[in-house]
Amino acid sequence: MKLNEEKMPFDTVLRMACVDALNWLKWSKTRDAEKGRNMPKSLLQELMRIGDKKETITAFDSAADFERRKAEIIGGNRNADIR
């Protein structure tokens, strides 16, 4: 989870997606749905803040730089001499 910067486990995400689908199905049978208003908010999007995150691409000059950054992310020794 840490390497992918995931905020919650996959099974939780899957459950939230199911709740969102059920909420949408329930809403789709209402008069509001006929007029396209008051659509329920996605709980999954709210909790994960999907759309707010700007993706950044990181490039490394060498494999050693990559390994150093990987060690920082997973909690390894930040000052380790990786060769």
Main traits of this protein?
83 residues, mainly alpha
How would you characterize this protein structure?
The chain is mainly alpha-helical and 83 residues long. Helices cover 49% and strands 0% of the residues. The protein is elongated and about 60 Å long. It has 4 helices and no strands.
Shape: elongated
> Which stretches are low in confidence, meaning pLDDT under 50 for 5 or more residues running?
none
Estimated share of beta-strand residues: under 5%
Rg to the nearest angstrom? 20 Å
Task: Give average pLDDT, whole number.
Answer: 81
H/E topology pattern:
HHHH
This entry's quaternary arrangement is single chain
Short description:
This protein has 83 residues and is an all-alpha fold. 49% of the residues lie in helices and 0% in strands.
Helix-strand layout with pairing:
Layout: H1 10-28, H2 31-35, H3 43-48, H4 63-73
